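Handoff note, outgoing to incoming analyst
You'll be picking up this chain. Sequence as last confirmed:
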Amino acid sequence: MGPGSYGVDTQTIAGIAQQVGDVRSQGVEVAVTVGGGNIFRGMASAAKGMNRANADYMGMLATVMNSLALQDAFEKAGIPTRVMSAIDMRIVAESYTRSRALHHLKKSRVVIFGAGTGNPYFTTDTAAALRAIEIDADVIMKATKVDGIYTADPVKDPTAVRIPSTGYMHVLEKKLKVMDATAITLCMENRMPILVFDLTRPGNILKAVLGEKIGTIVED
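Most recent structure output, in case you need it:
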């Protein structure tokens, strides 16, 4: 949503498209999992009395809207892209299957995963972990607004120090807000590294792919 309080900012997604294009030009296969919080936050609505399952389904639909917005930006940047949805909606997106996702990646297409896992009560973080494991990704790059994991909240504590690397159990035991516990556990059980980095800094995705020390890596 960029500088706005909701919705989709075209300049922001154009910037993301440029970064993804730079990475793809290095011969790297890229898949993206998209959230929907800028449009609809299922958890918040459920807390206000809405049925949790219905709220989560609405949140999944919001992720598909974001996926289509990203696809538009990617295609305008000359990046062949496919949106794959965990919920069947063939008119606007392909239904997700692992074999088709791998086919698109081998064809140098960026794959965008929408609609989470297709099930209520599971977060987009869990969907990202699940899809990364399914497609045998090398790493999950968790895009945030901060440049990694800190010893304390850097906004509230000026003495907070960024941690360059940590383990899954440390994240779980300290309840660090990296990804939800289900997603972290999935990654831990399948030895899937997680790189937490700042997406708002242009070029950070490429820097990470080229091996520069940015953000925080979570692994064994």
